[in-house]
Every structure is written in C-alpha cells, then in structure tokens.
Amino acid sequence: MKASSYTCFIVSIFVLFSISSAASYDPVDFDAFLQCLPQHSDHTVSIAGAILTPNNASFLSTYQLRANNLRILLSATSRPVAIITALHPSHAQAAVICAKRHGFQLRIRSGGHDYEGLSYISDVPFVILDMFNLKSIDIDMKTETAWVQAGATTGELYYSIAQKSDVHGFPSGVCTTLGIGGHFSGGSSSRQSVLQDQVRLLQSSDSQTRVRDLMASFDGH
Ligand SMILES: Cc1cc2nc3c(=O)[nH]c(=O)nc-3n(C[C@H](O)[C@H](O)[C@H](O)COP(=O)(O)OP(=O)(O)OC[C@H]3O[C@@H](n4cnc5c(N)ncnc54)[C@H](O)[C@@H]3O)c2cc1C
Questions:
Q1: CATH assignment at residue 117
Q2: Is residue 220 part of a domain?
Q3: 115 CB less than 6 Å from ligand 1?
Q4: CA distance 144 to 89
Q5: One of this protein's Pfam families, by short name (predicted)?
Q6: Is residue 5 part of a domain?
Q7: CB contact at 8 A, 194 and 173
Q8: Final residue before a domain boundary, out of 90, 108, 130
Q9: 98 with 36, same domain?
Q10: 108 Cα nearest atom in ligand 1
Q11: Choice from 131, 188, 196, 202 to test ligand 1 binding pocket (greatest atom count within 8 A of CB)
C-alpha cells in the first residue's frame, strides 16, 4: 500500500471511529428538557444554578473532577449534554423525571469511584445527575443513627461521627473518598459486609412518585 493510501486508510478509520462514538440528539428535546427542570423542582432553591451545559466555563472541570476512568479524556468519549449539580433533593427528582420524559439517559454520580465509568460515561445522549453538593450529615447520638446525603464521602461521615463521639464508628471501607450514594446503594465490595447490615433506610426518587423511602433494602441478612 502506498504511503498516501495508507494515510488515507488510517484517517478514514479514525473519522469512522469518532463519528460512531459521538452521541447526537435533537436540540429541541434538549430545550424541552431544560424547560422541564424548573417545573418539577422546589422553587425555594432555584435549579438554574445547578444546571451546567457545555457553554458553562466550569462544565469540563466539573465533569472531569470526580471521574476515575481516564477514558473521559479521549475525544472519542461522548460527553454529557448537561450536568445537574443538584442543590436540593427536588433537583434530583426533576432530573429523573425530565431525563426520562425527553429521552436522555440519566447517569447518577456521587463519589465518581466507578472505574467502569457507569456514573459518567455513556454511548447515548445522557445527563449526569451529580450529587456532590448534597452532602449534609445529621447525627443523632441518642438513637445512634445518622442521616447522610448521597454526595457526602465516607471520610466525611467518619469525621462527623468522630466529632460527636470517641467510641462510635461506621466501618464501611478503607477509602475515604467513596461517595455515600454509590457505596451504600450496592457498590461496596462486599454485599454481606458490615456496611450492608447497618444501612437501614434509603430514600430514592423515581419518575412516578415523590421521593420515597426504601426500608432495609440492603440488609445483609
Ligand atoms: C479506589 C477505590 C477504593 C474503594 N474502596 C472500597 C472499600 O474500601 N470498601 C468497599 O466496600 N468498596 C470500595 N470500593 C468500591 C466502591 O464502594 C464502589 O465503587 C462504589 O460504587 C463507589 O461509589 P461512588 O459513589 O464513589 O461512585 P459513583 O461512580 O458515583 O457511583 C457508582 C455507581 O453507583 C451509582 N450511583 C451513585 N450515586 C447514586 C445515587 N445517589 N443513587 C443511585 N445510584 C447511584 C452510579 O450511577 C454508579 O453506577 C472502592 C472503589 C475504588 C475505586
């Protein structure tokens, strides 16, 4: 094969590869998605400040900051059409409802430790629901329980407990940057671990209902 033909062949393969991995979508659907969000979220905390599109200066850094799979740095890896950095639980609910309604896949990211990239990579047009702003931790020493939002990390939980008590702890892994959302909802390394025994109540949001409680979903017994 001559050099020019060979170069042409390589370029063709590259272009073909790039095109086949780019996820395209209808801008009309995207506009409808954006308009849908405020209609389904609590107005006391505007969702406008939580929406990042590629036009925002912080879009790329937000996308890359909590992504452990370096595939995101490849130009062939499709990026999300938007990132919803939820500031209120209702923003998560709005993202679920509106993504489903307008045909965008939803990827939920808490700590971003999924090495396969399930929380931030997709081959179809997708939206990331990023939970890192929702990280409140309320500890009740009387009942020895804690309410922890999905965006908190395991390290933040350990630290909060240590601030309240010298004798209490919550053994759930050695890595302190795991997101509570992905770790507690089933990502932890052992399904029968101490962690699974201790998580008793999770709240979830779906496209049909308001935020609902799931009792003892991950009890290891
Ligand atoms: C470096 C490293 C160290 C680890 N150490 C330990 C350890 O010590 N002990 C242990 O048991 N496990 C450990 N793990 C496994 C870890 O618990 C899982 O990878 C876990 O899923 C990470 O959760 P995340 O929120 O950080 O990740 P993410 O990438 O944000 O999420 C992981 C998965 O959960 C989904 N998800 C995230 N948040 C939510 C949410 N709010 N609602 C619904 N779905 C959600 C995502 O879509 C994705 O599918 C480790 C993993 C890594 C990479």
A1: 3.30.43.10
A2: no
A3: yes
A4: 24
A5: FAD_binding_4
A6: no
A7: no
A8: 130
A9: yes
A10: 47
A11: 188
CA-114 nearest atom, ligand 1: 29
For ligand 1, atom 46, the nearest C-alpha belongs to 119
Cβ neighbours of residue 198 under 8 Å, at least 6 residues apart?
170, 172
pLDDT at 24: 87
Nearest 5 degrees, angle CA 24-CA 25-CA 29? 170
Note the pLDDT tens digit of each residue in 137-164.
999 999 888 889 999 999 999 999 999 9
177 lines ligand 1 (CB under 6 A): no
Looking at the predicted structure, is the pLDDT value of residue 190 above 90? no
pLDDT at 16: 40
Q: Answer with the residue of higher pLDDT: 140 or 191.
A: 140
Final residue of a domain: which of 130, 146, 167? 130
> Does ligand 1 have an atom closer than 6 angstroms to the CB of 178?
yes
Give the structural domain span for 121: 20-130
Token pair of 53, please?
């599109």
Contact 75, 81 (CB under 8 A): no
Residue found by looking up tokens 């045909």 in the block: 103
Say if residue 26 is in the same domain as residue 102.
Answer: yes
CB 131 within 8 A of CB 150: yes
Is 158 among the domain residues? yes
CA 142 – ligand 1 centroid, Å: 29
Tens-place pLDDT, residues 19-77 = 334 378 899 999 999 999 999 999 999 999 999 999 999 999 999 998 989 888 898 89
